[in-house]
Amino acid sequence: MSDSLVQVRPAEYGAVAQAMTAAVRGQWTFREADVARAQAAWSCQGAYALLGEFPGQPACLRLQLAGSPQPLTALLRAAGQAVPRHARLLAVVREDWAEQRAALEGAGWRQTWASWGRIWTWAASTISRLNP
Question: What pTM does this model have?
Answer without folding.
Answer: 0.73
